[in-house]
Design goal:
The protein is built from seven helices and no strands. The protein has about 120 residues and is mainly alpha-helical. Helix 1 crosses helix 3.
Length: about 120
């Protein structure tokens, strides 16, 4: 049976993750020079207060709106979605983006030194 991606986490941890997602969205919105009202209009969100709810951690960006949000915020959609996964679905994020073991990161050659 499918459950919510954050199922099994305590409510405080879920709220912290959603608040971090909200801060991320707010920083992108401000960098793009958009008000909450402008972002709501660009993403076909009926009420700008929904943007406020997302930014405060009381709501989530609807998955069907990911591309619209990325376009409105002028960011790469894949990077935007991956960052949201970190907050909204940490289990899936850990599978898709496992941490690099400490030793491997240190041994990697810089791109400029890699052979063709």
């Amino acid at each position: 049976m499918f459950g919510h991606p954050q199922q099994g986490m305590n409510a405080d941890d879920v709220m912290k993750l959603r608040q971090q997602a909200g801060l991320y969205l707010r920083s992108l919105r401000e960098t793009a020079g958009l008000s909450q009202r402008e972002l709501a209009k660009l993403t076909d969100i009926g009420y700008y207060s929904f943007i406020s709810q997302i930014e405060s951690g009381r709501g989530r960006v609807p998955p069907e709106k990911y591309q619209m949000f990325a376009d409105a915020l002028q960011v790469d959609a894949k990077q935007f979605v991956m960052q949201l996964l970190r907050y909204y679905d940490p289990h899936t994020f850990r599978i898709l983006c496992p941490p690099i073991p400490r030793g491997k990161a240190a041994r990697a050659k810089p791109v400029s030194q890699q052979e063709d």
